[in-house]
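Exercise 3.2. Students should predict the tertiary structure of the chain below and write it as structure tokens, then compare their answer with the key that follows.

Predict this chain's 3D structure.
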Amino acid sequence: MKLCIIIPAYNEEKRIGRTLDAFSVYFNGLLNMRKINDYEILVVINGTKDKTEDVVKEKQKKNRKIEYINFKKGGKGFAITEGFRLSLKEDFDNVGFVDADLATTPEEYWKLISNMGNYDGSIANRYLKGSKITPPHSFRRLFVSRVYNFIVRALFLLPYSDTQCGAKVFRKKVIERIFDELLLTNWAYDVNILHLCKKHGFKIKEVPTDWIEIGGGHLNVNRASIQMLFAITQLRILKSQFKGALRVISPVIDFIYHKVLLFTLH
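Answer key:
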């Protein structure tokens, strides 16, 4: 089995080094034990303004399995899509992605692969029995997460109780099938992927995970909540028979979005 692990990286100079070290050691170990035939860690640097590229270059000298590309354009969805694009040119069996902050350790990421079985993909779920979040989410963040998931499940009829955990892996055939239909809806990108998997009949397994809250991130709960809500609303319209109407109402949606966003930031 040959694996490609995509890591989107936006201003991650303080965290990407540790992540690359951990994944390198662990997956080199799997390679030595012949549990995998080969692997690649593909870092997709996007819109970064710090020294992320310099850190990745240094780590690349220590592990030739690390590759990277650097784009001026930003956005997690854009980064993962470009990672998918490159991975499809190679003979990988499985292609996945994981966040750059090491919230998902390589041991937990390997669980997604080793537990995939006959499924077409695996996603980490922080809310399944057997999962652990360290430290536990605050009531506010947990509430926002559960409300968002309820809306996602209602709008897209998805069975998953955690669409947003940043650790997922798929058979290459899945990426090949859905690639041309991917939209760059950053905050709804994971939902978009899972919705397309459902549309094309792919079976995705949820796997319990130990997830660690890492400091130094860029998440603003108020801002992210608004962005996520508008992102999934737009995605739902784009995936419906009424998508043509989005062109007409987009200016109104954008106006409301920016007004609400400004209000939450004050």
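Discussion points: The chain has a mean pLDDT of 87. The two ends are 51 Å apart (CA to CA).
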